[in-house]
UniProtKB/TrEMBL annotation, chain A:
This is tRNA N6-adenosine threonylcarbamoyltransferase. It is found in: Cytoplasm. It is an enzyme of class 2 (transferase). Its cofactor is Fe(2+). Belongs to the KAE1 / TsaD family. One of its GO terms (biological process) is tRNA threonylcarbamoyladenosine modification. Coiled coil: none annotated. NCBIfam families: gcp_kae1 (TIGR00329), T6A_TsaD_YgjD (TIGR03723). Its EC number is 2.3.1.234. The lineage of its organism: Bacteria, Bacillati, Actinomycetota, Actinomycetes, Geodermatophilales. Residues 27-314 form the Gcp-like domain. It holds the Pfam family TsaD. Fe cation binds at residues 114, 118, 308. Substrate binds at residues 137-141, 171, 184, 188, 280.
TrEMBL record, chain B:
Residues 38-144 form the Gcp-like domain. One of its GO terms (cellular component) is cytosol. GO terms for biological process: tRNA threonylcarbamoyladenosine modification. InterPro entries: ATPase_NBD, Gcp-like_dom, T6A_TsaB. It comes from Goekera deserti. SUPFAM superfamilies: Actin-like ATPase domain. This is tRNA (Adenosine(37)-N6)-threonylcarbamoyltransferase complex dimerization subunit type 1 TsaB.
Length: 347, 215
């Protein structure tokens, strides 16, 4: 029993079917089905395969989430769904399902921004976000720095990647190193036995005149591929742990430096890092070191909640309900390139 | 019992409400067909609302949900199927899936609908209306059709024979769903994609990474 809203969240923007239940800011359940294994041999997510898997997984995953939370559909107060950004066909399975549940249950529906949800999920573990905060989102599809005066309705983009996303760079480098897909966690693991200082890889967009909050990882990725190929041509073995460690260091050095700078420049002393790459152990370590030195309070969700899941959508939905933000219109659709400053599709 | 039927296998989304009982033709109480193109996701739940309001029926009075399973363009098709599955699940109702082509026209006929890529989805029916060929997806000239051909008249020229315009109807969906509604034990919803996903495994990895992977 509680007067806090019970929110059912749907996430289908990529290859994870995530259904979460949140009451207020308490995580009740987080059920996940993934088609990642079906994409592995293609070296990347195949949208049609992901969409088919979402359809198959939808109702069973909803029921897993309900059972884990010990609630029934009748208890649900509001429904939230990722409306974008993401793969259109994949998003639409979640949007259509969420709309149907909302209609059948006669509950309000909130179409929310996937990126804002990656930030909101932190509230499930660490309580209400300090506002303003700086948020850094680093995932397979996105790398953005945001100023967040109010997570329910005011999120301002400061900068983003101009080419590859951070997670994409991890995945591509993993491929070059012959590691499985998605490569982020494998690079992370391999790097533990490597020397980050063994190879000097470039730090993109860190010059005096470069955009201070934008990122670029494609030059780094190419540099790694060239280095590995040169070894190959010379007939020498490739020291996978060293390459992984040096590459990872280049990524997290740039990410953390820019995030700290964004905090300083805006006089903000709270930083939250979200998205799949926030699961990276070296990013977490270096960010906490640099934040401590700069007097910034750092928050990162536990690794399990950093990658795509339904709880993050429910968490943002709950925030919107409590802030009194207007729900979405029944004609809600998916928006594959939903801008980051649109937290939810209201009205 | 009151049955909500919907289909999103063609560019025209169809939602209807019918009174159904075993052994007699269903009585359609309200129906809407929306030329929604690729906006099925936006327009489907509003159409469901509108049809229920039109018939003066509440969600709580429904006894079953019927959905077309295709064949049809994948993205729109999934919107209908997942909507039907979720509506039924939320109300604790049975959900019945039928081949969408079965709901186009009546009696002895072949049905063709647009499969894009210059192909048709097709099926053939005998005088009882039982499907005896298909569903298939082929170039129009390769489909095993027999007159009369009904469905998308846009293919008449390619086929060199008349195609009488016909679309999915609520009555057709209910007719096709009859046996499963009567048995009370509907089959699991399996979309009729008829095509594999477009996906090609990338070329073999570079020699260097293969060697590394094998270390
Ligand atoms: N430990 C890790 N180190 C680096 N990258 C990681 C780690 N764990 C996951 N990733 C990366 O996170 C990305 C997935 O992030 P996620 O937020 O789930 O996806 P999306 O991009 O769809 O929002 C992938 O690119 C993956 O390689």
């Amino acid at each position: 029993m509680s007067d806090q809203p019970l929110v059912l969240g749907f996430e289908t923007s990529c290859d994870e079917t995530g259904i979460g239940l949140v009451r207020g800011s308490t995580l009740l359940s987080d059920a996940l089905a993934t088609s990642v294994a079906e994409h592995e041999r293609f070296g990347g997510v195949v949208p049609e395969i992901a969409s088919r898997a979402h359809l198959e997984a939808m109702v069973p995953t909803v029921h897993r989430a309900l059972a884990d939370a010990g609630v029934t559909l009748g208890d649900v107060d509001a429904v939230a769904v990722t409306a974008g950004p993401g793969l259109t066909g994949a998003l639409l399975v979640g949007v259509a399902a969420a709309k149907a549940y909302a209609l059948a249950l006669d509950r309000p529906l909130y179409g929310v921004n996937h990126l804002a949800a990656h930030v909101a999920v932190d509230e499930l573990e660490h309580g209400r976000l300090a506002e303003p905060s700086i948020a850094m989102l680093v995932s397979g599809g996105h790398s953005s720095l945001l100023l967040v005066p109010d997570l329910s309705q005011d999120v301002q983009p400061l900068g983003q990647t101009i080419d590859d996303a951070a997670g994409e760079a991890f995945d591509k480098v993993a491929r070059v190193l012959g590691l499985p897909f998605p490569g982020g966690p494998y690079v992370d693991r391999a790097a533990r036995d490597g020397d980050p200082a063994s190879i000097a890889f470039p730090r993109g967009l860190t010059g005096q005149r470069d955009a201070p909050y934008d990122f670029s990882f494609s030059g780094l990725k190419t540099a790694v591929a060239r280095w590995v190929e040169a070894r190959e041509r010379a007939g020498e073995p490739v020291p996978v742990p060293d390459v992984a460690a040096a590459f990872q260091e280049a990524v997290v050095d740039v990410l953390t430096a820019k995030a700290v700078r964004a905090c300083r420049d805006h006089g903000v002393d709270h930083l939250v890092i979200g998205g799949g790459v926030a699961a990276n152990s070296r990013l977490r370590a270096l960010a906490s070191e640099r934040c401590a030195a700069a007097g910034i309070v750092l928050r990162t969700p536990s690794p399990r909640l950093c990658t795509d899941n339904g709880a993050m959508v429910a968490a943002l939905g709950s925030r919107l309900v409590q802030a009194g933000v207007a729900p979405s219109d029944p004609s809600l659709g998916a928006d594959s390139s939903m801008p980051i400053d649109v937290v939810s599709r209201a009205g | 019992m009151l049955v909500l039927a919907l289909d999103t296998a063609t560019p025209t989304l169809v939602v209807g409400l019918a009174r159904w009982s075993a052994g007699v033709p269903a009585e359609v109480l309200a129906e809407t067909a929306v030329e929604s193109g690729n906006r099925h996701a936006e327009l489907l739940t509003p159409a469901v609302r509108a049809v229920l309001a039109d018939a003066g029926v509440g969600m709580a009075e429904l006894g079953a949900v019927v959905t077309g399973l295709g064949p049809g363009p994948f993205t729109g098709l999934r919107v209908g199927i997942v909507t039907a599955a979720a509506l039924a699940d939320a109300r604790g109702l049975p959900v019945v899936g039928v081949c969408s082509l079965d709901a186009v026209g009546t009696g002895a006929r072949s049905v063709v609908t647009d499969a894009r890529r210059k192909e048709v989805y097709w099926a053939g029916y005998d005088a009882d209306g039982t499907r005896v060929a298909g569903p298939g997806v082929d170039r129009p000239e390769d489909a095993a059709l027999s007159d009369p051909v009904v469905g998308d008249p846009g293919f008449a020229e390619r086929l060199g024979r008349p195609v009488q315009a016909a679309a999915v109807t609520t009555a057709g969906l209910l007719r096709a769903a009859g046996p499963q509604l009567a048995s009370g034990r509907p089959d699991p919803l399996v979309p009729l994609y008829l095509r594999r996903p477009d996906a090609v495994p990338p070329a073999a990895r570079k020699a260097v990474s293969q060697r590394v992977a094998g270390q």
